[in-house]
Amino acid sequence: MMKKLAQIGPKNADICFYLPNPPRLPTNWQASSNLNIEELITLNGNHWRKIFVIMAKIVCPTSDWRSYLPKLLQQDESIHFGKTTLCPNGKIHIVCGQQSAQALSLDVLTEPQSFRLINQVNQQICLLPYLDYRQCPNSTIDALRCALEAH
Known about the structure:
The protein is α/β, with parallel strands linked by helices. The protein has helices at about 35-45, 45-60, 65-70, 95-105, 140-150, and strands at about 5-10, 15-20, 75-80, 90-95, 115-120, 125-130. Helix 1 packs antiparallel against helix 2 (about 45-60) and helix 2 (about 45-60) packs parallel to helix 5 (about 140-150).
């Protein structure tokens, strides 16, 4: 039997991703366990591989996202599923897709392959399309990285 959680990653992460649905987790997985991205990809398939790759491309401190991918969600990022409020400790909130934006009572994006930054005191909210290559291509990721680095 597979477990589902409301969050994956450190509880006090500075970068919080918001998605509508969690991946399936191994039955022996615990929140305190070291996260194995490859195991999650094997269990959940290509859809989640794409999500994790896009996340790594967004948050990787260098351009070497491939080396960063195994470290994803073990450092300073977390994913929250079905949340209705932003995480209080987060500094950057990356809201992925219409469903997540609506759950958080935020405006949804209307332009395809775009993003919108909302700057608030001590935090940034970034509205993104769902993490899929068609909706969130490399050009959008690169522009988002530049915008986040500028703030």
